[in-house]
Amino acid sequence: MEFKQLVANRKFTLVASLPANRIDLAKAALEGGAQAIKVHMNVWHRASNNTFGSFAENKQFMQELITLAGDVPVGLVPGGADAFISNEERLELEKMGLKFFSSYSQHLPPFMMESEKLTKMVAIDYTYTQNTLDAVKNSKIDVLEASVMPGELYGTPLNYADLLRYSDLVAKTQKPVLIPTQKKIQPCEVKHLYEAGCKAVMIGAIVMGKESAEDCKKATAAFRSAIEAL
Predict the structure, then answer these.
(1) Residue-wise pLDDT tens digits, 130-179
(2) CA distances from 44 to 53, 158, 165 (A)
(3) Can you tell me the distance from the alpha carbon of 14 to that of 8, in angstroms, rounded to the nearest whole number?
(4) What is the Cα 33 distance to its own chain's centre?
(5) N or C: which end of the chain has fewer CB within 10 A?
(6) Which DSSP symbol is given to 84?
(7) Helix (H) or strand (E) holding 202
C-alpha cells in the first residue's frame, strides 16, 4: 500500500524511525508491528546522535530493507542542511521501491516535490507561523510532519499545550498530521494524539532507544497495542 493511502485510510498509523541504518533494527520494528519504516541519509540526527551516510554508502542497505519490508512502506529522510540526494538518486530509489520521503521544508530541494511515485511528507519546525500553515494547506504536501518542538524540549514529557498546538495544525492545514516523538510520548498518550485529530505517530530514538533491537521491538509493540485499542 502507498504510504499516503495508509495514513489516510487507517484510523491511526504507526511509523518506526530507525535510530540507525541496521537490518536488525528494521526486523525488530516490523516484528513489533510497525506499519511503515523510515530511515535516514546525509544527516546528523539530533535525537539519536547518529550520523547517516550518503546514498552510495546506504544503497545496499536500502535494497535489503525494502525487500525485507515487503508490503510495509519504507520511507527516507534524504538529507539535511549540509547534503541531500540528487534527482538521479531519487529516481533510483523510486525504482527500488521507496514509498515516501520525509524532510524539513527548509532542507527540501524543489525537485523532490516533482515525484509522481513518492508520498511527500514534509516537516515544519518550531519557527512556523500561521502564514506557514496557510501555505501548507494549499501545497502539494501529502502528510504534514509536525516536528515543531525546539531542541531543548526533546525528551521532555508531553503536555496539554503540545496537544493544543497539534490540534491547531490539523485544523489550519487540513492535512493528515504525523507526530514524531520529539517529546517522550508514552503509548498511553496515543489516544490524546488521536483525539487531537492527528493521523499517525512516528516513534524514534527518544522512545525506542538508540541501539537495542529488543528495545526497539518492545517500544514498537507497545505503541501498536495502544493504536489497536483506539
Answers:
(1) 999 999 999 999 999 999 999 899 999 999 999 999 999 999 999 999 99
(2) 9, 24, 27
(3) 13
(4) 15
(5) C
(6) B
(7) strand 200-203
